[in-house]
Amino acid sequence: MLKSAQVVQKRLASSTGLLKTPLYPAHIELGGKMVDYAGFEMPVLYKGQSHIESHNWVRSRVGLFDVSHMLQHNISGRDAKSFIQKITPIDLDQLPKNSSSLSVLLNKDGGVIDDCIITKHEEDQYYMVTNAGCRSKDIQFLKQELQNNFNLSSVNHNTFEGTLLAIQGPKAQELLQKFTNEDLSKIYFGQTRFLKLSPISATVHLARSGYTGEDGFELSIPSISETEKTEALNFFNTLLKEFPEIAKPIGLAARDSLRLEAGMCLYGQELREDLTPVEASLSWLIPKTRRELSSSCSFNGAEKILSQIKNKSNTHRRIGLKSANGPSPRTGNKVFAEDGKTEIGYVTSGSPSPTKGGNIAQAYIDKGAKIGSNTKIKIRDKLRDAVITKLPFVESNLYKP
Fold first, then answer.
1. Residues at the annotated binding site for substrate?
2. How do residues 353-378 score in pLDDT, each as one tens digit?
3. Residue 323 forms beta bridges with which residues?
4. The domain at 2-68+162-260 falls in which architecture?
5. pLDDT tens per residue, range 154-183
6. Where in the chain are the domains?
7. Best label site of 13, 102, 152, 291, fewest CB within 10 Å?
């Protein structure tokens, strides 16, 4: 099945050599400023919208994000659960059917290959979404783990292309409810459904999830045939043209500032192969049921990760920083104690905050540094004042019972 994904990618390739999502024609029609993102031609911003306007629209109404560049996986078979629990620290027995959870793919040393969302549909059927920028690496990693540890006949893993549409914002349910008879008020954050959305003929996979801190959904819409692609494109356009007072298309620029305000990690920034989940302040991804080493409870890098948890040996933690107006912190900027001399960490990502004002950043700093204490960030060869702040910067508005 991996070949089928490669065939589709080739078919979607643009004249520039970059891949195109099924929603690409809409991005061009809407005046999207297109950039190369993980080998795809993607909109970073749309004509007539500033970054701040796009960001604030999502916080107050609904933003539509094309995230079809993400890689979608189906994993099934007799050993599907064992396979997933070998490469991630998740406990699938604790995950109810038709529910999803954030997790991480782990290498043999406990480093993070990628972060992912895993959905359980049956005890032997799972759906997983991984990052666009890690496509080749993830496929190779999963293939190698299967070959080295499992009978290939007991686990079926295939990747597939399709339209993946994120509908994010406080009015997301109000908007999407107009297109389905399913009562969306009964679907809470972390839950999923297969349902019908008018006028799409294929069954759509809906997850109440997102990457903004706001309420919302992610829709996986089959888009292999030309008919399916056209239906997905028409649905996207209908949302925008019939409900312009609620919905706007939003590009990659606002997606990043929204996730940063929500304290969410970005692979390649906060997460890397040389950092364990513990070192990334994600110990909560390892449930108590997986914190005892045993043959039935092992996962990649478990010995190292569980030792870090038990011994509290981590010297740094991921935390927030706030600074006044001026140049915003950027990846790699060094962080110093208030004296401006003692280096205590480094910035992983930063930007202006449209919601809070001023600048914000995530950083890895000495775990002894206290929230509320003053610090310095070296930006453009100048030390600038900042304050250590808890995450998230903006409280999440997730739809929960």
1. 218
2. 999 999 999 999 999 999 999 999 99
3. 359
4. 2-Layer Sandwich (3.30)
5. 999 999 989 999 999 999 999 999 999 999
6. 2-68+162-260, 70-146+276-313, 315-395
7. 152
